[in-house]
């Protein structure tokens, strides 16, 4: 007899719009709250466990969109990105923990560091890809420490210096929400092996 785990399936919320016929301009579907609601309702009714909320520059903001998804559903968990250099890790830890509590334990964290440099630079983040992975490692370590430490958190790194930070609330999921990471580079594999629960492949 072999050990087996049930297959877990996720879906995708196209917050940059969609199409009913790929490559046909007249078949495009515009982004709107009503469109998102139809996709989310169909995904939850079909039994998908999580829903990837994208973060490309043409997409709607993922945390606000994910919060509305969670408020309008009962089971499906938004999978939302943590991107290095975008949000201070203490604030991000508080955002994710608050989301987790308010949604009844329905958030997953998608670690993304390998986006195209031109998109990162356009949004004001000036770290190269190698530095973004190192920065992300620090930020994940800080978030995990904030979620699992009762007392104040101190951290001294290359990019972040934390002196006595605390957050409230702690996450509902224990010890914290699951981490996902997708990437084919060696830096992605190393970070995923250390910090993620699920490695995503294209």
Give the structure's gist in a few sentences.
With 202 residues, the chain is of the alpha/beta class. The protein has helices at residues 33-45, 62-72, 89-102, 117-122, 129-148, 186-195; strands at 10-12, 18-19, 28-29, 50-53, 77-82, 108-111, 153-156, 161-165, 179-182, 198-200.
Describe this structure in words.
This protein has 6 helices and 10 strands; from the N terminus they run E-E-E-H-E-H-E-H-E-H-H-E-E-E-H-E. It has 202 residues and is of the alpha/beta class. The strands form 3 sheets. It has a 6-stranded parallel β-sheet, with helices on one face. Strands 2-3 form a two-stranded antiparallel sheet. Helix content is 37%, strand content 18%. Strand 2 and strand 3 (28-29) form a beta hairpin.
Please give the radius of gyration in angstroms: 18 Å
Element-level helix/strand string: EEEHEHEHEHHEEEHE
Overall mean pLDDT score? 94
The coarse silhouette is globular
Percent helix, as a range, is 25-40%
Oligomer: single chain
**Which percent range describes the beta-strand content?**
15-25%
Strand order of the largest sheet: 1-4-5-6-9-10
Overall SS class: alpha/beta
Tell me the distance between the termini: 31 Å
Overall number of strands: 10
Helical region count? 6
Low-confidence stretches: none
* Largest sheet features: 6 strands, parallel
